[in-house]
Amino acid sequence: MMSKVKPKKTHQTMDEKLNTLRAGVLGSNDGILTVVGVLFSVAAATTNQFTIFIAGLSDLLACAFSMASGEYASVSTQKDTEKAVVEKERQLLKTNFDDEVAAVKRHYMTLGVTEETAIAIAKDLLAKKPLETVVSIKYDIKLGHYMNPWDAAFSSLFSASAGGIFPLVAMTFLPDAMKWPGTIMAVTLSVALTGYLSAVLGKGNVKTAVIRNIIVGIITMFIHYYIGTLF
Questions:
Q1: How many CB atoms lie within 10 A of CB 163?
Q2: pTM score, two decimals?
């Protein structure tokens, strides 16, 4: 009796993990700013707590699902593009093998390898792992590892919801005397954190990212508060 062979589990590459984290950070930041924007607009226009809460909650849900669907569509497109490139290279290996060897050779020569050695490396790699080699060198794609749109979508959905919770809870449950300063503080700390995480993930300047996010958050709150006072 033949036993079924279980497919090997493929571990996520660092790029795949970073893409999921990126979607989460962006989703959280968007959730914070869109929810506080609605809360400030509505709270400036009315003191009815139920109205403020429902407006904030509705926006939180809408934002979370919007971010998730956007990430799914974006990453799906990227995945389809990567697959199309792999298929293109699969055909080129059959019809233009010499050109593929030349492309790999040029790559190694740019790294300082002599032409003779680069040709030897190219022929050896293309004899063993032709498709994996060309897609890695020409497009920086790891064969069989494509960005997962569902990972990005769920990461964005969860983080946008979590981010929007901070201003919603602050505006809803803090005592009246603390609602405005408490919400402003919650938003400021939250966007500072997302700015820090985005800088770390993108290997950018942490201080600049944090300050930029705080300024954007303050401007967002001011604009929406001003709009609310017009009604």
A1: 32
A2: 0.72
